[in-house]
Specification:
Helix content of chain A: under 10%
Shape of chain B: globular
Oligomer: heterodimer
Helix content of chain B: under 10%
Number of helices of chain A: 0
Largest interface: A-B, 27 and 24 residues
C-alpha cells in the first residue's frame, strides 16, 4: 500500500530555478492538496483539486502553479524559486473534501 | 469556514488524560469537526471526526456540546509517543471545501 507518494524527498535549488514536485496517490481519491510547512508553523494550503479536472487556490498560491494530470497525479510547479519558498511541502489526498486525508512523507526544499 | 482557536501548547505527564479544546464559534450546520496529529518530520495523520455529542475510537474521544461552538479532543493515558502537534479543523460537506489547518496545539508528554 503506497498511499501518497511524493518525489523528490529532498531538493536544493538556486534562486530563479524552476522545478516540479510530483505527487501520486493510489487510493482512487477525488481530492488532492498541496501544503507548505515552515519551521515551527502549521500547514498552509497552496492549491487544491476537489476533483479531476479542477484546481483552486488556497491560502498562499503566489509563486506556484499546479496541474491535476489525472485522477492519480497532482503536481506543484515553482517557476522561479525564491528563498522564501524554502519549506517542507506536503501533498495529501482524500476521497472527498470532508473525509479523512492521507499525507505523503513530504519534500524538503531549500532555495539558496 | 469557521475559524478555529486552540491553545498553542500543553504539557502532560505520562499516564495522564489530556483534553485539548478547540473553539469554532461560527461553525455551520453542514460542518464537521476533524482532528489530526503530526509528528516531527511527518505529514499529519487523521485521528477522529465528529458532528455532535461524542465519538470514540481506539485512539481518542471527541466531545462536542449541543451548540457545537467548541469541541474537546481527549487522549486517555498519554505516553511519550503522543508528543506531537494536534490540529483541529472544521470541514464542510456538500461543497468544495478547503482543508485548512491552523497552528495547532503542541503537546509535550514527559515522564
Amino acid at each position: 500500500n503506497a498511499g501518497v507518494t511524493q518525489t523528490p524527498k529532498f531538493q536544493v535549488l538556486k534562486t530563479g530555478q524552476s522545478m516540479t514536485l510530483q505527487c501520486a496517490q493510489d487510493m482512487n481519491h477525488n481530492s488532492m492538496y498541496w501544503y507548505r510547512q515552515d519551521p515551527g508553523m502549521g500547514l498552509r494550503l497552496i492549491y487544491y483539486s476537489a476533483s479531476e479536472g479542477t484546481t483552486d487556490k488556497g491560502e498562499v498560491p503566489n509563486g506556484y502553479n499546479v496541474s491535476r494530470l489525472n485522477k492519480r497525479e497532482f503536481s506543484l510547479r515553482l517557476e522561479s524559486a525564491a528563498p522564501s519558498q524554502t519549506s517542507v511541502y506536503f501533498c495529501a489526498s482524500s476521497e472527498y473534501q470532508n473525509t479523512e486525508a492521507f499525507f505523503g512523507q513530504g519534500t524538503r526544499l531549500t532555495v539558496v | 469556514l469557521a475559524k478555529t482557536t486552540q491553545p498553542i501548547s500543553m504539557d502532560s505527564y505520562e499516564g495522564q488524560e489530556v483534553n485539548i479544546t478547540c473553539s469554532h464559534n461560527n461553525i455551520a450546520t453542514n460542518d464537521y469537526i476533524t482532528w489530526y496529529q503530526q509528528f516531527p518530520s511527518q505529514g499529519p495523520r487523521f485521528i477522529i471526526q465528529g458532528y455532535k455529542t461524542k465519538v470514540t475510537n481506539e485512539v481518542a474521544s471527541l466531545f462536542i456540546p449541543a451548540d457545537r461552538k467548541s469541541s474537546t479532543l481527549s487522549l486517555p493515558r498519554v505516553s511519550l509517543s503522543d508528543t506531537a502537534v494536534y490540529y483541529c479543523l472544521v470541514v464542510r460537506t456538500g461543497t468544495a471545501s478547503k482543508l485548512t489547518f491552523g497552528t495547532g496545539t503542541r503537546l509535550q508528554v514527559t515522564l
